[in-house]
Amino acid sequence: MVNRWYRRNRPSNVVRTPDRLGDYVVALRNEFVAQNAVCRRGLNLEGELRAYEKETRVLLKLASTGRVVNILLRFGRVLESYMEVMNIEKTEEVLQWRDQLTLERQQRVEFFQQVLKDEQRLLETMGDETQQMELLTLLKHDVATHHTILTPEELTVMSDVYGRVVEHSGIVLVGEPPSWFLSPNDLMCENGIYYLDAVRVSKCVTGEVLRTGGGDHQSWEDQEEACLRQASIWADLNHPHVAKLLGGCHIGKEPFVVHEPAEPLVSNRASAQSWQPLLGWALGLQYLHERELGYKNFDDTRLLARHHVTSSGVLSGLGLVPVKRKTSAPLKRGVSNMFDMKSLKAALPKDGDEEILLDSHQIPTWSVPNDILAFGLAIYNTRQWVSMYSDEKVLVLPPSRPQFLNKQEWDLIQRMCERVPDNRASMWYVVHQVQSFVKTSEPPVADKKNPVDLSVSLDPEEDEDDMSTESYNPEHIDEFIVPKMCVKVVKAMPRIKGMCDAISEATPNSMLSHVYNRLSSLHSQLQTNANIKDATTVMEAFVSVLDLFYILLTRREKQQLSSSAVASYCASRAAAQDIAIFHHEIDRLLTLAELRDAAAPGHSPPSHVTLADIRDDSSESIDTTLDSEDIHEWLFTWNKMRREQLRAFQACLKDTEGLTQQLEDPKIRLEAQMLLQFELHKRRSSYPNSVLQAMKQALALLDKLGDGAEAVPIWFIPPYEVVLGKHIGQGGFADVFHGKWFDTDVVVKILKAPAPAKAPGKGASPPASASGSSEEDTMALFRREADHWFMLNHQNVVHLYGACHVGTPFFVCEPAKTTSLSSHVKALACARPGYKYEEKGGDPADIMRCLLLAGIGLKYLHERGIVHCDLKGNNFMVGTDGKTIKLGDFGMSVLKRSGKGRHAAHSNVGAMPWKAPEYLLGGDPSPASDVYGFGMCILELISGNFPWAGMPEAAVKFHVTKRRALPPRPNGKFSDLQWSLIQHMCCYDPNDRISLAAVVDMLHTFRFAQQ
């Protein structure tokens, strides 16, 4: 086989391969690297072409034509940029690379035309049916992706080959490949490590699902079908603790999927010492169950931990199947109105009562209790393995508690592994318990600061007023101080009762009062602590629960009233779950204090119960007063209250006249439609079938009132599933908050409303947007931006989990350190023993690594047609692992490019030193504008100062647009090569600037060649 990477392969004597494509560019690259050894770590053309060159099937090489031509064209331009930056004269051999590539492409077309004429050879190169399907898919994908750079001759020969294969095989492809589809050549492999879009990824073969019995259903027998099913399910999942699918390939001999870098925890015992990975798995599994998905085969390969963040547990998306949903019967008179399995079992219909069936596409194949059991055993085996107790997995729990588990941990695992499936603990109970294990096993360190503080406070300043209790050691419960209230328990209790009463009057909510009554009872029991085990620990825990309950009440007080009764009822589901969490916290305190039996009926964790239908003719009322002398047997009462909410919800949905009146406003109607569709399709397991049927009827009515129902976007998150925390800051388009979504740390960006005619009143969230065409335009842009952002999957780009476009629009994205690159580099330098930051500044290795990662993220955006248009040092963020650089604050880029958004961006105070001249003159931003802005970011980070530091903005604009000048070169900070890079990135004419691909390649070179 001809090796064209041989060092002596030069343009003067090019080594010709049978394929021809890229021979001259390869020779040119060899000569340039030989003459400029400093560049040997960059210009990795060999790595990009490795998969293509290893392919021996001729027609499959044809199916990669567009991709390879694109690589060669980009590389040639990058090589020219190197020469410009390094001030190397372009010889005649360099200047003719485009002509040589064109000639190679023509010769290659002629080669394939000859293949088409040779019938026998053509049939041999087609391969078997699997290879033919692979060939057709890749040909179609390559033409669709790269048709703009393919010549008419190339398109013709690819079309002819496609037609001949279809004619021979009879295979007809309908539609386009899935949005997640990857060509096998899109992956780079270096020393067994896979890379996609210049970042490390994990690859797994989907055939494992079939081999392990996870997909033994007849329709899963074919590997391509299994991959399509698995990848389609996985691609729709978007949660911090479910590994993000980055793509997949369902064709060929070995279909595969690619996800964010994560590996089974069993490969690293040190990473599993904490309960943190298990909490991540629990949160991920809770999310999957909300989506009515579960694992057919729950084994260790599903339990992953992220690279770089060894304590972050994530679940694999392989092996997921729809879970069983329990059917339910109409509630008849005389039957308990609890959601109780035993009571309802006798009430199942025997007289032909009609049931509401699942949608035909949701065929149940697995159950939630089975997942709970498997996860309980996984927790047991993980803790056993971590403790070095044994490496042998157990399939059945031992009869007594092992030494490596404490009483609370053992109790949880036993509840998860109950013999009777319906008695097993629910997933949200498991999450809550594991969260408590994390807190108790990892005491806070005084000098350790979390990357993101997600504690919820009344206002941003409240933490400063919290009273320190470190030196305060009370002995009586009433003397303890509730931190957020800054008062002692004796004064906090009546204040909290008043808040409960006020909220209940405004919005009837006896669930809150029920929690307070239990807290009040426990408070009375703690008045005498002589017989209480671990009294101080119990009292401290009581204060913590009281503190959290106060935060919840404060949040409820600040919440704006729902725009409609429908919105309010939809939100009641999440609110009821929040209340249940407090009940379980109180149960935990009672058990800890040994004030009641841990196995008491009211203390049983919520199990997987049947939701009974509500009959239209039911006249029964729900008495929400206590049905038991023991106030702490709360589950019965909580279920009755929730059922009353559902009965009222169903009545509201069936009240055609009332529904029509309250939803006359198109905006309110749209919100109701979105929320009803979301609850119906995404949270259906939380409702009895009778309420689901009422939702369908109400949606049909709303369709007639408007112009038809708008489909729920895949990124939609209802506002009641997001809990706002501390305010972080604000920009020109959004206010930014810490928050929680599915008990997971997130950042929430709430879109600012247009400035109203008069000042708005205070509230927990920004005021509703003013009506009018401008608002409609803004909402259309918001939806467009959410569509774009949600499709981005790259570790150097802040990840969007979801958004809400009804009511007050907001984005929900991953948390990242709110710090600038300069501050991050300083922190890294100061953390090095003996490194003197004041004398040396940032470490050059840290600086180049940060810039390279930032550039990779920006390049990823540009390749998908997204312009940031607001680059500056503090828009590059640091991931919670303290290492990964992420590009942030681009979520409003479409809004920034709109008319009013562009005006706001132009007038953005403080951002002018980073703006390109064409943008300052009122032009639209472009990728070249981002190259200019990134050049200023490089100048800022290496020099340690802002561009044009100390100069008024009017003077900056004059120098940039009139004098066409760059900031002065800082003394001793830049090598000639680095300064030349900035000069070529920041040319006045956008057409003269080098490409971002060249910038990223040079940053990689500079990283290994400090000047």
From TrEMBL:
Keyword field contains Magnesium: no
This protein's UniProt keywords: ATP-binding, Kinase, Nucleotide-binding, Serine/threonine-protein kinase, Transferase
Domain Protein kinase per the UniProt entry, residue ranges: 722-1007
UniProt cross-references to SUPFAM superfamilies, sorted A to Z: Protein kinase-like (PK-like)
InterPro entries the UniProt entry points to: Kinase-like_dom_sf, Prot_kinase_dom, Protein_kinase_ATP_BS, Ser-Thr/Tyr_kinase_cat_dom, Ser/Thr_kinase_AS, Ser/Thr_Kinases-Pseudokinases
Protein's UniProt keywords contain ATP-binding: yes
Record field: compositional bias (Acidic residues): 459-468
Composition bias, Low complexity: 756-773
Pfam family, one: PK_Tyr_Ser-Thr
Binding site for ATP: 758
Ranges for region Disordered: 441-471, 756-777
PROSITE patterns: PROTEIN_KINASE_ATP, PROTEIN_KINASE_DOM, PROTEIN_KINASE_ST
UniProt name for this protein: Unnamed protein product
Organism, as annotated: Phytophthora lilii
